[in-house]
Amino acid sequence: MVGTIINEDNRRAADRFAPKAGYTRVVIAPAPQNSEPLEFEGHAYDVSVNGLRFELDEPLEEGSSVGIEIHLPGLLGSIRTRGRVVRIFDEDGDHGPRRMAATFQSFDTPLDASRLTTHLGSGYFGPEK
Questions:
Q1: Which residues of the chain have a pLDDT value below 50?
Q2: DSSP code per residue over the chain
Q3: What does CATH list as the number for 17-121?
Q4: Does this model's pTM top 0.85?
Q5: What are the CB-based long-range contacts (under 8 Å, 24+) for 104-108?
Q6: Which of 11, 37, 43, 121 has a Cα-to-Cα distance from 83 of 20 to 30 A?
């Protein structure tokens, strides 16, 4: 089962798991600012029961609400959740993809939350090193 830890900088309240595969697709949908909904595809670096660290070509605004669809290796179908961007990893002078972190605020269904917890605790992933 997924254990709870607090790391040295007190930012994480749950173990993070990194996919064995090099690419875990995520689709991020910021709350629409106008009538056109947007979706951005990227990939996750690690995921926990509380949130994930991911990368997109362009940074989102810190504090923005987002829909998150995670396609975890070894799991059929995706997990859908709502979250908030809580951190943007700044790389001065780097115009490439930007890493960000989001916390989960709610899951689309109780089954999504259950599938995430079960899959993270299954041993398919190892803890972040």
A1: 1-8, 10, 21, 129
A2: -------TTS--SS--EE-SSS--EEEEEEPPSSS----EEEEEEEE-SSEEEEEESSPPPTT-EEEEEE--TT-SS-EEEEEEEEEE---TT--S-EEEEEEEEEESSHHHHHHHHHHHTTTSSEEP-
A3: 2.40.10.220
A4: no
A5: 104/49, 104/50, 104/51, 104/52, 104/68, 105/65, 105/81, 106/81, 106/82, 107/79, 107/80, 107/81, 107/82, 108/80, 108/81, 108/82
A6: 121
